[in-house]
Description:
The protein is of the alpha+beta class. It has helices at 16-32, 69-81, 120-129, and strands at residues 2-10, 36-52, 55-67, 85-92. It has a domain at 2-91: Ribosomal protein S6/Translation elongation factor EF1B (Alpha-Beta Plaits, 2-Layer Sandwich), CATH 3.30.70.60.
Amino acid sequence: MQRYELAIFVDPGLTSEKQKELIDKLEKLVEAEAGTVHEKKEWGRRELAYPIKKQKAAFGWLLRVEMSRDKIAVLEASLKKEAEIVRYLVTKSEVVEKAVEAKPKAEPKKAKTVKKAKTPEKAKKTKKKS
Length: 130
């Protein structure tokens, strides 16, 4: 089993109920293909960089799933059939099991104080006073 991230942008004309129905449908599809959904996040309405299917905005969703490599093709085929999905992207996710221990930061070095050199004018003035 491999972990994947599935980013989906859906038609902005859909109500929030219809969006959730679509996402639930995708979750059931993943589970039907012997996969599991670990996380789902709603990104909200986003302006697109360029129009896709004559849409300038879309609602974004992120699903983190775990399923076998050969079942991803089945998932992608069903995503292509959904008319409400404007764009999708499936990427392989690298999971770091152990958190990297943070090294303690060294204290910053203190700046050396540098004595200012006397300018020639000031040097003349101090000599005259003596």
